[in-house]
Amino acid sequence: MARPTKKGITYFPLDVDFFSDIKVRKIIRANGADSVSILISLLCSIYREGYYIEWDNDTAFLISDEIGVSEGSVTETVRKATQIGFFNKELFDRYSILTSKGIQERYKTITYQRKNNDIKKEFNLLVENTPIDEPSGNETNPQVSFSHEKHIHGSDNHAEGTQSKVNKSKVNKSKKNSRKSKTYDELSEHYQLADYLFKKILVNNPEAKQPNLQKWADDIRLAIERDKRSPEKLKNMIDWCQSHNFWSGVILSTAKLREKYDQMAAQANSQVQKPVTRQEKLPDWVDNPIPEEKLSAEKQAEIDRQMEEFLSRRGGE
After folding, report:
1. Directed axis angle between helix 189-204 and helix 231-242, to 10°?
2. Do the beta carbons of residue 255 and residue 272 sit within 8 Å?
3. How far apart are CA 122 and CA 81, in angstroms?
4. Is 214 exposed, middle or buried (0-12, 13-18, 19+ CB in 10 A)?
5. Residue 263, CB half-sphere, CA atoms under 13 Å: how many?
6. Where are the domains of the chain?
7. Contact 85, 26 (CB under 8 A)
8. What is the pLDDT of residues 73-132, one digit of tens each?
9. DSSP H or E stretch at residue 215
10. What distance in Å separates the CA atoms of residue 160 and residue 222, rounded to the nearest whole number?
11. Which of 119-133, 138-152, 159-173, 223-237 has the lowest mean pLDDT?
């Protein structure tokens, strides 16, 4: 069974400065921030199909449903995008399609290895006799425009570029693995701390398998040199975690000791008992005061009379 012909492309480059593109800024100014999501969704749909999509009510619905905006917002964004040249207005008016010269150039560049990557004659916006089917390799710093109106070259825009990166990564990894590993003396503090952790693990699980203590010692070195943990703090943390119900089952290597150190330190510090301060017991009436008794009119009049007599006596003395 023949392999089905691939229609579109699986990725497209996006300029990190797309907000600086004058066309994008005009669209945002006219239609709001949602227009950026609409434009990106439209570009994804175009490249998924190849180098253009047909514009109709169904397309407006699909885009609006995909990103959660109204169909009216999608329609207005497309209208503004074609008006200012983000998409080609002539092809939009004549054939109701969304495309641009930049989109077609990018499609041709990325798919240059395909046997059939031709663009329909009536839709073709590319300059004739321009060799764009294959990257020239002369531009070392290609410019990619969000408006898709700048021509691009370079191996990063097609499958071979991706494959070369993978191969380069494998070579670097191979070189890294071929380096001679560091050997630690059994009397060194790195090896001693690694062995100390393993002995603590054996206390909790006598059937624990013998690890590569040289590798464990290297993790200890990294903890001291890169993580800035002193040997004393590492030893204290080993003691703490291996006596902890939960962490003793987690920290089963020096690599895990490095990875979880900060988390364990925070928990260990939070468990430090705070000094108990003496609290004096307050009488009950502080929280439950006795309500003030309300005097009757007769009682108040009697108190006023007695006060007047008292004051008159003091005045006569």
Report:
1. 10
2. no
3. 21
4. middle
5. 10
6. 18-157, 189-270
7. no
8. 999 999 999 999 999 999 999 999 999 999 999 998 888 888 888 899 999 998 754 444
9. helix 213-225
10. 38
11. 138-152
What is the phi/psi pair of residue 60, to 5°? -60, -40
Contact yes or no for 83/94 (Cβ under 8 A): no
SS3 104: helix
Look up the pTM and report it: 0.44
Q: How many C-alpha atoms does 154 have within 13 Å on its Cβ side? A: 11
In the numeric block, which tokens belong to residue 97? 């399609």
Radius of gyration in angstroms for the set of CA atoms belonging to the chain, rounded to a whole number? 39
Structure token pair of residue 35 = 């227009």
Handedness of CA 200, 205, 207, 208 (dihedral sign): negative
Nearest to 93 by CA among 85, 103, 105: 85
On whether the CB atoms of residues 220 and 253 are closer than 8 A, the answer is: no
Residue with tokens 């009397």: 187
Backbone torsions φ then ψ of 41, nearest 5 degrees: -65, -40
How far are the Cα atoms of 231, 305, 306 from residue 299, in angstroms, in the given order?
A: 83, 10, 11
Query: In the numeric block, which tokens belong to residue 230?
Result: 């002193």
